[in-house]
């Protein structure tokens, strides 16, 4: 045999179980068929939120991946729009690009010679900088990636996994896109590719067993506890039901007795165990716990786990483990997809211990947030312009209070001195309490007070106060909609 393995179910263990069953009748619950043990599924809003808050990140990642897979990493916007349903985008591609600036550049080119130019999408300069940062993070954590890959192979029954399946789960475990080309060949002491490079016929095989990698997260936790306290702890699962979750008495007793069984490492040989035995259930929970612990987000969609049923000896009903052991796992139904989540890895909806490869996600989210900030600033600027025009139009038509209009306008950023003067001219019109169409010259304003005095108090001596000048301003404002820009232009050119 290529690898050393150890038996985990000895004769003494059998005698111990028999003795316990005689002393404690409740222990006979373990003899009941596992399939008869039912636990009602209960929603956990906090863990559901953990999935929901990563939704935008995952959608953006999908679109980026779609563009990167195109020749030259460019694609006509129209072609990308046709794939919107497959990408699960609920908005048009053009809207997505506006909402997420910084990811892509849009330019015009011809699909074929002598055709009309159409819009193309390509990776932006900032996104290319992110890819360089991603390479740096992967290189820094290459040892951790290698150990993850070894662990996945070491848990498999023949220490072999399909290349296609590994590629399918690379995002779940943080493997780089090119790990089969630029990582696996660099470690011939651990990995060997076998079979022709055809779909379903290529496999990755473990070459050398590393005892350091053969420690599960649970076993490592027990060792760390011993070093810290000097008390040797028995490796076991961390079991805690969420608030408001209760088990029936029969199920509570079964869980209590089940937790008293010896821990079975996911890295030991279990070929001699009966698939329907309690020990195999114990081992299955251990493998699922280890897989989720190795994943980036400590959660994996159940259909993806199901693809490895043969390699990891899962039963056909393995997904029932997630509800049967609700104190260890949670199965979310968010988004219409069953997702297995490791409870102990989360506090409310946040990860407690983050995988070092999540730095890549953080950098990508930072890029997205920079784009969102730019978008918000653009929208804010547009809203201010619209608000400014609306206030000025209302002032012209006498629909707003003069003091309120003054406050709203002076709250805006006025870049030009003449635009500022134009606002003050409008103030004078409003002070006259006369409809704009009735104001033809300063005499109409004098009906409400000393025009010259008011004008000097507001705008000083910098603006000519001739009737001709005022007439120019008024006629232009009436003709062109009374915007600040037009009045400013009138003050610049008035004669």
From TrEMBL:
InterPro entries: PORR_domain (IPR021099), PORR_fam (IPR045040)
Name of the molecule in the record: PORR domain-containing protein
Pfam families: PORR
Highest taxon in the source lineage: Eukaryota
Species in which this protein is naturally found: Salix brachista
Positions of the PORR domain: 43-372
GO molecular function: RNA binding
